[in-house]
Amino acid sequence: MFAVTTRNKLRSRRHAVSMIWAWAHIRRQLAHTPGMLAYTTGIANLTEFFTLTLWDKEIDMTLFMASEDHRDMMWNTRQWSESFWSMRWNPTNKETRTYIQHIRRLQYLVEQLPKPDVPVPKLKQFRRVATRFEKTAR
Q1: Given strand 48-55, what is the order of strands in its sheet?
Q2: DSSP secondary structure letter of residue 13
Q3: Which residue in 35, 46, 54, 116 has the fewest CB atoms around it within 10 Å?
Q4: How far apart are CA 2 and CA 137, in angstroms?
């Protein structure tokens, strides 16, 4: 068992849409990755993003990190990020059970949220809206 947690602090809110878009790709890939036991993502605000992943073996996580989608996103985070940290550890069995319970509870809560029925505009339009939002928030 192997766990990884990350925190990505963006330079600006205007990068939030790009980050969420990248996350969607990564989460789809995680769902089909061998050795992936559980994962969850969290947003503290429009500039702070977290992940927690549980892996069967360290090699599984290493292969995922080397994948094209993950590599592309990490390349972009250099442009988007003010700071980034990651921590890896081998959790105890008790910690693992607790993490999985929390992840399942979070997944259940997310499933209970209403599904948004909003058409997704083009990425450039998203960026313009985010830039305007950032200017009005100041």
Answers
A1: 36-45, 48-55, 2-10, 81-89
A2: G
A3: 116
A4: 40
Q: How many CB atoms lie within 10 A of CB 96?
A: 17
Phi, psi of 4 (to 5 degrees): -135, 135
Sequence letter at residue 34: P
Q: For the chain, how long is the longest CA-to-CA vector?
A: 48
3-state DSSP call for residue 44?
Answer: strand
Note the pTM of the prediction, 2 decimals: 0.61
* pLDDT tens-digit series, residues 52-86: 888 988 888 888 888 876 777 777 777 888 888 88
Altogether, the residues listed in the chain come to a count of 138
Query: What Å distances lie between residue 5 and 99, 135, 138, CA to CA?
Result: 12, 31, 31
